[in-house]
Amino acid sequence: MILPRTGIGIDVHAFAPEGASRPLWLGGLFWEGERGLAGHSDGDAVAHAAADALFSACGIGDLGTHFGTDRPEFAGASGVTLLTEAARIVRASGFEIGNVAVQFVANRPKFGPRREESQRVLTEAAGAPVSVTATTSDSLGFTGRGEGISAVATALVYPAT
Questions:
Q1: Rounded distance, CA 6 to CA 156, Å?
Q2: Between the CA of residue 33 and those of 14, 19, 56, 71, 97, what are the distances in Å?
Q3: Could you give the C-alpha distances from 59 to 71, 101, 139, in angstroms and in order?
Q4: Radius of gyration of the chain (CA)
Q5: Which are the contacts of 95, defined by CB distance < 8 A and separation ≥ 6?
Q6: Which pLDDT belongs to residue 61?
Q7: Which of the residues 89, 127, 156, 161 has the least number of beta carbons within 10 Å of its own beta carbon?
Q8: Contact present, 54 and 47 (Cβ < 8 Å)
Q9: Contact between 87 and 128 (Cβ < 8 Å)
Q10: In Å, how far from its chain's centre is CA 14?
Q11: DSSP notation for 88-155
């Protein structure tokens, strides 16, 4: 019997300072006219949480282990690129990906109209189904105050046979 393994990933990014020319990348998509997120790479908290959940499920480290700030080649990297590479690392470690589910918490951007587009992009990057949901924190905490975005992901993997 092949038993699946699950993992959890969390990623949090503050919005870039007002006036900073930093685009918003979230869920693998560019959000025109939205304030971007600060970070070593593009700050895509959704893609980062998905990658971190995959690493967690396999027990092979975390986002910092593979793409940390000590890796200059990943400075400014796309979250889609990181998720694609994470999926490659997971498969090279002897696992297949069942699925990834991500929920992010933010007041903006309005995600619903682009959900399907985001899921297509992330599913292609992971080579497995990725679902994304969004919620607000009812004006509570840093996300409620509009200071940043957080994302939580779960991943299901199983040993390749």
A1: 5
A2: 17, 12, 34, 30, 34
A3: 21, 18, 35
A4: 15
A5: 5, 57, 58, 157, 158, 159, 160
A6: 95
A7: 161
A8: no
A9: yes
A10: 14
A11: HHHHHTTEEEEEEEEEEE-S-S--GGGHHHHHHHHHHHHTS-EEEEEE--TT-HHHHTTSEEEEEEEE
Say if CB 54 and CB 155 are below 8 A apart. Answer: yes
* Tens-digit pLDDT string for the chain (161 aa): 888 999 999 999 999 998 888 999 999 999 999 999 998 889 999 999 999 999 999 999 999 999 988 888 888 889 999 999 999 999 999 999 999 999 999 999 999 999 999 999 999 999 999 999 999 999 999 999 999 999 999 999 999 97
97 to 47, 149, 159: CA distances (angstroms): 15, 26, 9
**What's the rounded Cα separation, in Å, for the pair 30 and 44?**
10
